Amino acid sequence: QLKEEIRRGFARLEDPLAGLLAMLESSSDWKGKGHSLGYCITTELQLWIKAHPAVPQSGTKLKKLQARVLGMLSQCPANLLDPLISIYQLHTADRNYLLEHVSHLYLQGNYKEAAILSIKLKLQPDQDVEKMCTPLLLQDKANLVEEYVAEYPELQRKLLQTLDTWCEPSFNIRDIIRPYQGLSKYKPEKFNCRVLSKLIFRLLGRFNVDSALCPNVINQRHLRTLNYLFYKRFVEKTMTEKNWADHIQSTVGENRWLQGHLVQLLLRHCDTRGAAQWAQHCRVPPEMLPQAVAKELQKLHIQDRVEEVTKADNYEASKKKDYYHLPIPRENIHFLQTWEETLQCWEKVLQAGQVVGVDMEWKPSFGMVGKPRVALLQLALKNEVFLLDLPRLLEQAEAEGEKEKLPHFIQMLYSDAAITKLGYGMSGDLSSLAATCSALKDTEKQMQGVVDLLAVDKQVDGLSPEHSHEEREVRQQEKGLSLLVQHVLGKPLDKTEQLSNWEKRPLREEQILYAASDAYCLLEIYERLCKDPESFGLGSDLTESLVGKQSKKPRAKKQLNKQEAPSPSGQEFQGPRMEPSHPPAPISPQEFSVVCDNMLQGLGRYLRCLGVDVRLLDNEDDHRKAAEIARQEGRVILTSGLPYQTLRSQVGEGRCFSVNCSQKAKEQALQVLKHFNVQVSLGDIFSRCQ
């Protein structure tokens, strides 16, 4: 009835367009959200005009109406913008007049409204992208900034270059902020190099722009990778020398800035002779070396292999016996690079009743743009493992004009319900497979007969009673598949090659054995669980209950944890914590005082809600400030990842706690309260000023 009444009303009006504006200008409800009467009338007029083409006006009269409607657009709800722009033909209005109007909005401080109107009227090519986007970024409106440049590649590049210059080490971000001091909804904590860096990488990925356009953030990311690699090699001691050297060379390359940082790190972790050896190995120009290192370099003879620099190396053969051992002879591991070899593999794999362990390896991305591309596909059968050189095989098939044949076989394997496929965290593997070959993007939807042992891992009970106390201690240091192998087969996987450069050819012997073990252990776990499920707390119908199921938990980002090493600041590393033999005496939140590291601000705020005395580090604070505060004020440090290793050595025993960074604030808080036996009562909640 309302719609009919509206249409009759417009038919009676001499000038329906002027009539609508008069109604909207004098109406009190049209500025509210949702479908107001004003919205209903406006959309009906839009439809009515389509049925009455003679109605739209032109000339001076239309210009006057356009001027009136422009004044209204900055205040009207978002759902009215498109109908009003269409009805009053604003796309045909004088472009300079429109730009002037948007500029007026901008000068009044209506930055969001100016940007939205610019997007709707497609004015971006005639505007200064830095000027338009800066206040939006300060107000934490990155999504609007993305929308602003979405259709304009040139503006995308300009924006990325601008953001990258803000990340220069010598650049003072306060210079950008100064003109906007009185900005409403200004969020300074959201405007720093770390946040900008994340935004740049997101935009590079979304708009598929060459990352060379942003050298500053790329260098900073590479520097974090360098720090992480030095931590893995010299502090954690979990990376082999060859593996480490491969990554150092591919990270630093010919980049002078990174070479300078490499030299500083070498001097921090090695003696002068060691620094000189590695500088030679990584081809650092002699003029970049400090005098003492340069002198040492002159004494060195050219060596085929760099001597071991660190005295404490974890890779003696004696240590290998503590890890899972591949139970098949070396000649049963086949590295396949030609289609003829691969065909023989498929003949054995694609047989009804076959059980296949499937795994994939890719070069760790260390936080760089894009999804990792699979460099090696491992297929394990009883007594045999096939390692498929995926990039080489895909390249070969494309050269022969048959690029679909390898994806076809992989799809046949995954979709055949008669073949049992075993994996661990299959969802992440398959998303990387889809990034490597677009023809495989729907594999996950079509797969049948799969057993994701990650799902089993969640059901498996703790260590069986027969495991010794020593084995229980070792178990605490393992995680993921290695932990499941330790639990079911007695020894963990040796993961020293996990972060290898899997794209480099030829693969080293250690990489080949690691890749084969990763796939073959899946067969042995499955066989053991099927034989004796009850001893691991699983139902006797294991095979029936698991085939076809897969882990729903890890998707996209979390699955990358298999290979994508986080940067030191974000690494989810749980250092071994000594749990007290007796729980501490219960205390109230008022007696418990903590200092939270800057990546745990959410946890800090949550604990404060429960009445705990909390101090939070700012985003710009160095992690070491937490130790100073803890010593001065007698607080417990709450941190996560790599800083835990540094901070716990600077305070007393039990005064530093490593929180799981992947959990939400509530789960973290429960973890902390349980560990320190803090008893929260109803009266403690909101007992402190927030």
Described by strand count, sense and barrel closure, the largest sheet is: 6 strands, mixed
Query: What's the total number of strands?
Result: 10
Structure classification? alpha/beta
Mean of the pLDDT scores? 84
Strand order of the largest sheet: 1-4-3-2-5-6
Residue stretches low in confidence (pLDDT < 50, at least 5 long) are 301-318, 468-476, 548-580
* CATH architecture classification name of the largest domain: 2-Layer Sandwich
Can you tell me the number of structural domains? Answer: 4
Report strand %. Answer: 5-15%
Oligomeric composition of the shown chains: single chain
CATH topology of the largest domain: Nucleotidyltransferase, domain 5
Distance between the termini: 53 Å
Contiguous helical run count: 33
- In CATH, the homologous superfamily of the largest domain goes by the name Ribonuclease H-like superfamily/Ribonuclease H
The CATH C-level class name of the largest domain? Alpha Beta
Query: What sort of overall outline do the alpha carbons produce when their principal axes are compared?
Result: globular
Q: Helical content, roughly?
A: 40-55%
What is the alpha-carbon Rg in Å? 31 Å
Protein name: MUT7 Exonuclease
GO molecular function: 3'-5' exonuclease activity; nucleic acid binding
Keywords: Exonuclease, Hydrolase, Nuclease
InterPro entries: 3'-5'_exonuclease_dom, Exonuclease_MUT-7-like, Mut-7_DEDDy_dom, Mut7-C_RNAse_dom, RNaseH-like_sf, RNaseH_sf
